[in-house]
Amino acid sequence: MSACENSEDLKGQTNGPALVKSNISTSEPAAEQIECKVFSPEAPQECTTRLYKRRWAIVFLFSSYSLCNAFQWIQYGIINNIFMHFYSVSSFAIDWMSMIYMLTYIPFIFPVTWLLDKKGLRVVALVASSINCLGTWIKVASVKPHLFWVTMLGQFACSFAQVFILGMPSRIASVWFGSGEVSTACSIGVFGNQLGIAIGFLVPPILVPNVEDLDKLAHHISIMFYITAGVATLIFFLVIIVFQEKPEIPPSQAQAAMRNMSPQEYSYLASIKRLIHNKSFILLIITYGLNVGSFYAVSTLLNRMIIDHYPGEEVNAGRIGLTIVIAGMVGSLICGIWLDKSKTYKQTTLAVYFLTLVGMLIYAFTLDLGHLWVVFLTAGALGFFMTGYLPLGFEFAVELTYPESEGTSSGLLNCSAQVFGIIFTICQGKIIDYYGTLAGNIFLCIFLLIGTIMTGFIKADLRRQRANQVAETNAKKPGCQEEGLSSPLKEDKV
């Protein structure tokens, strides 16, 4: 089959003049052995691409184990006062059940990112789902008042699993999805994490009511832990059976270029150095950390803020958290679809950041009005933009840093978020203790204002989009036509 020849079975794209010749086979039905002439990121030429239906199974399975892990991040904090009573520990100790997720991420992100680059998606998915499963069963054994250290050990295992999860959405989107759907796919990947947090806000207050009898309380906590362990085990086996490393044929021109870089051309340390010298990416790291760190602080301390103004409303505190995250999930999907259509990465990121600041100000000044319905409305508006910002940051980072590894750029963003999350959670918690919730929320607003200003200085250098455009342009040059080769077709969904 010639390099620029269209194949009805593959419904793929075509390629231009040859640089390197490679044979690619696929196990998908109706697929043929094809000869594909590949290109480099520096001088991209058109190459055959294909989209597989399996990509949706991969991204939704990833979302499932991300959901299970994220649920456990907030399951202690949202019923902070109940776990304080059961384990006879301080509020700050329960806060650490959430902050351990942030602290664990910081030292382990670089070796995990190296593992992702060297071993690929499947190995990282298996490690993440297995460690998460182990952590849930450790918690099952911790349901006794004197075993707080055991439940902390289980939470540490789950927090370690999270390190293998947070940087995956943009990598899965790039490896499995076409150039016109990467932002949507990344949003779906983030969607699972957000849905897990939403369930973590909603379910624990329902499953674990605030009762004085420790035996009854242990029974309720045990039910929650067993359900979580069962779900984590099921997902682990599904990952073993279903999760695949990558498609046989690349989904986009940019991904084809990445595949055909020789291993000698890629150095993890050199990649880190290049990213550190990318000024726009450094600005994005800081602004992403400020925004997402604020979200982590609000989520961790939500129970305390609501109970301060509305005593006995543990269930509604969970529902308010649910409202924040559900609204954010809608925001994430809308922003992802919008980016795929418009490619306006900087403008969209700046607008969402500014509206996050506005939402935080409104939430701060209406929290103590005495009307829960007002809190639900303002929290929903805040969540739509604050949580909706998550996939924007991931995709903007990939654009600014192409052809560097998506796992590396995502890892640095998340590392920044964890650092700011710990700082903001501790500082806001102390401010709330001494000066009240309004002062604590104003503290976050100041940093969101700084982040908004810094976002305005980020240069919109969309490298991945340029690579795809150059490849398509080169394929239409007269040279390809002179050789009797057909022009490229639009990438179709198979």
Automatic annotation (TrEMBL):
Choline uniporter that specifically mediates choline uptake at the blood-brain-barrier. Responsible for the majority of choline uptake across the blood-brain-barrier from the circulation into the brain. Choline, a nutrient critical for brain development, is a precursor of phosphatidylcholine, as well as betaine. Also mediates transport of ethanolamine. Choline and ethanolamine transport is not coupled with proton transport and is exclusively driven by the choline gradient across the plasma membrane. Also acts as a heme b transporter. The lineage of its organism: Eukaryota, Metazoa, Chordata, Craniata, Vertebrata. One of its GO terms (cellular component) is endoplasmic reticulum membrane. This is FLVCR choline and putative heme transporter 2. Keywords: Cell membrane, Endoplasmic reticulum, Membrane, Mitochondrion, Transmembrane, Transmembrane helix, Transport. It is a multi-pass membrane protein. The keyword Membrane applies. Belongs to the major facilitator superfamily. Feline leukemia virus subgroup C receptor (TC 2.A.1.28.1) family. One of its GO terms (molecular function) is heme binding. It is found in: Cell membrane; Endoplasmic reticulum membrane; Mitochondrion membrane. Pfam families: MFS_1. It catalyses: choline(out) = choline(in); heme b(in) = heme b(out); ethanolamine(in) = ethanolamine(out). Residues 58-463 form the Major facilitator superfamily (MFS) profile domain. One of its GO terms (biological process) is heme export. Residues 473-494 are annotated as: Disordered. Gene3D superfamilies: MFS general substrate transporter like domains. It comes from the Eukaryota. The keyword Transport applies.
